[in-house]
Amino acid sequence: MSSVGQIDLDLGLNYGPFRQDLNGIAGTATNLVGGAFRSLGGIIAGAFAVNSIVNFSREAINLASDLAEVQNVVNVTFGSMTGQINNWSSNLIESFGLSELSAKKYASTMGAMLKSSGLTGEAMKEMSVRLTELSADMASFYNLKNDEAYYKVFSGMVGETEPLKQLGVNMSVVNMEAYAMSQGITKSWMSMTQAEQTMLRYGYLLKVTGDAQGDFARNGDSWANRVRIMTERWNIFKGTMGAGFINILSPIIQGLNWLISKLQIAAAYFRAFTELVFGDAVNAGGAGAVAPLNDTADAATGAAGAVDEAGKAAEKAGKKSKKASKDMKNSLAGFDQLNTLAKSTAGAVDDAADGAGGLGAFAGLGNLDLGTPTINVDPVKQQVAAFISDLKSRFTEAWGFISAGWAGMAPALQPFVDMMDPIGKSVTNIGNTFKRLKDGFLVPVAKYILGNFIPSIVIGFTKAFAPVIAKQIVWAFQTFDKTFRNVTNQAIKLWDTVWLPSLDRAKNAFVMAMPVIAGALQSLLTNTINPFVDFMLNGFAIPLSTTITETIVPIYANTLVWAFQTFAKSATNAVNHINELWKGTLFPSLVKLRDMFMDVIPQIGKAFEKLLDGTIKPFVDYALNDFIIPISAKVIDTLVPVFTDTLVWAFKEAANTFEWAVKLINDVYNTVLKPVFDLIKKIVMDTLETIKGLWDKYGAELLTSLSEAMENIRNTFQKLWDDVLKPIIEPFLKKLNEIWEGSLKGIIKQVGEVVMKLVTAALEIYNKFISPLINYVIDQLAPGFVKGFNIVLNIVTTVISSVGDIIKGLLRTLGGIIDFVTGVFTGDWKKAWTGVKDIFGGIFDSLYGLVKAPLNLIIDAINSVIDGFNSISISIPEVEVFGHKIGGGSIGVPQIPKIPRLAKGGLAYGPTLAMVGDNKGAGVDPEVVSPLSKLQNMLGANNQPVVEVLMRILEALEKNGQGQVIQVDSTVLGRVVANAINDITRRTGRSPLTT
Description:
Elements: H1 15-21, H2 31-45, H3 51-78, H4 82-89, H5 100-116, H6 121-142, H7 146-157, H8 162-165, H9 173-182, H10 194-208, H11 215-218, H12 223-278, H13 303-315, H14 317-322, H15 324-327, H16 335-356, H17 378-405, H18 409-412, H19 414-418, H20 420-826, H21 829-870, E1 873-875, E2 878-881, E3 884-887, E4 890-892, H22 932-940, H23 944-958, H24 970-988
Antiparallel strand pairs: 1-4, 2-3
Helix pairs in contact: 1-13, 2-16, 3-5, 3-12, 3-13, 5-6, 6-7, 20-21
């Protein structure tokens, strides 16, 4: 393009936004011309793929515009400190990964918030800068986007806790108050000013984010931070380019604004002319004149909007190319219509050029001359004409095929056309029949029911039942009046005779009992509760807690000091070892691993490339072209004819079957269904006719007889009531009233008197005679009864214990027999020998239980006598001699010790009575009565040889499961068992085998 004013076909893609900017010119062209112009612009724009360039231009202009707007905020927010902010923001790309736009946007927004909180001057500027840098470090530390990290920091500074909680920073009020206390601030959070709260949040945030501060500088060479720097540098580049685009497009935007303002003046003149000629139709309603537009919104608010529209035109170019023919109405009209569209388009553009020619007179634009745009549309017209001609011929050919294919549809639909005449006749007949139904049935029935039937029934019901209902309502009110008066009289009477005296007695009893209850409560408090509370607080809890504190706290403190010292030592040791491991082991290992990967990855890549070239790619090519496609073609070639033949056969058979079914249904209807329904109709009609005849003949007489029968029934029941029931019930009720008043009432009263006297007498006899007598008997017999019960209880306990010993011995014997038999038959002689020991042990336990029971009963009897002797005491009367009291108290006999039972052994520290040898199994396991020192000497003697022999025997028995067999002659075993049984029989006088 040679100049700005020259509009070649290359700028056809800008027609969309250009036409939008020149919206006032639309009145000079028809809708048809506008549609042709849009289609032509879409066709031309489709030839250029400039979407990416347009998007870049739009984003660049937006960034440049944003930077200018942010600069305004910086100027207002920081005032005289703007230069410092400008210098600071231009040097953050390497140190914090922030572009100038991002730094100014973050700092100015934060500064505006701080100023609204009451912070100004250098403090506000330093806080804004520090928080902006902190957001960049947090973005690097937590791998966040810069905007997201800044949002979290800003949210924390304004008191929103949730965003920073996601990073582990809790800025709740509780934490703020705790931090204030740690800084020596005693002022509560609610009493702080907004500025104080903001400063406290700032200090706390810097404290808890110490790990993140400086992270970008430490990890500036990381991949993520390098990507951040590249992104911000790209934004800086786009912003710089956008500033240049704005410089280029600003005069164009100014010229368009001037043009639109001039077009508005022309529109105002046009409106005035039409009002003079045709009248003011807009304000004809009298609602007030509609003021003309004094200002028109800028058609292009910025260069970014113009470029954005260009991008949209480029994106839709393909769609507009495909829809070009649809956008032209009557596109098949030939070259006349197309020439008209082209002329209208050219005229519209010429008018636009003429209007833009005077831009030089606006706002100091100088001699700006856009020139006259020229558009050569002849080649386009020829291409469109050829396209339309080809489209018309193809459509004509296609329509011929379609018409030939559907030519047989009209004869096929002829039956539906032929059916309309009979259907119309049927509809007419239905309408006439419905009219006859209305006039002959519906209207007469409605008149009779609404005008005669329902009113007669309602009036008759009202005449018959209205007096009855009214009389019953009167009776109800009279009965309620009588009942209410009776209830009121009885309530007044009961209040005077019953309720008032009873409540008065209850009141008096309550008043008299309260001092007694209060005195008892005071005694409980004075004598028990108060001393208990005083002791628990001053005599128990405080001394105990003091002792615990004096004992535990030093131990805890020493332990805590040791724990801290040990932890510090361990931590130091661990850190030293970790550092040594990193330098000596981990770092060299990682370097070797890195080098290995760098050597191996190219080999893997080459191997994978060989796999692709040698196997995967040939396999895919073979599978698609030599396997799947040939098989698919063969399947289609084989199965499609089969499916087609089957489908044709299926349709033929379906048609034949349907035709047969229709004939069968028609035949069934004519031979079965219709005769059956005719017969049913004849039966129903004849039956109804018969019923009607019978009713006409006998109906009236039947109703008369029923009325006579109902009248006789009513007369009979009325006569039964008047002549029988009423004469009996009335005298009976009178006699019952006389009996109640004359006899029963007095008898019930006398019975009540007798019952109350009996109850009173029984209570007096119980309180004055029976209760004292029972108390006396209890006082006299209770001590003896208690002693006797204890004696019986001891006897029962002894017997039960002895029986339990016998049962346990028998069960032990039974278990021994089972173990013996099992051991003999399984060869487990250790188990058999244990069974033999349990057999004899159980027998001796049972014998011990039999002997122990009577001995324990004798001992219990002797101890009972000793208890009685020890309880003897003589009461000495108290006498007064020469003004002094002598005597009193009691004298008891010397206490005799009881006989203890030492069945399980014990230690005797002095002379005492005892029963020895009562241990169960004492015959086999006799008791030892010996000084303790001798027993200790026996246990301390050298028994090692005996122990070694026993251990060898046990080892031999345990090895039995490893294949060793102990053979015992049955005769020898029998002799041993027999000798043992005989020995027990001689010593106990009873065979152990008898139970």
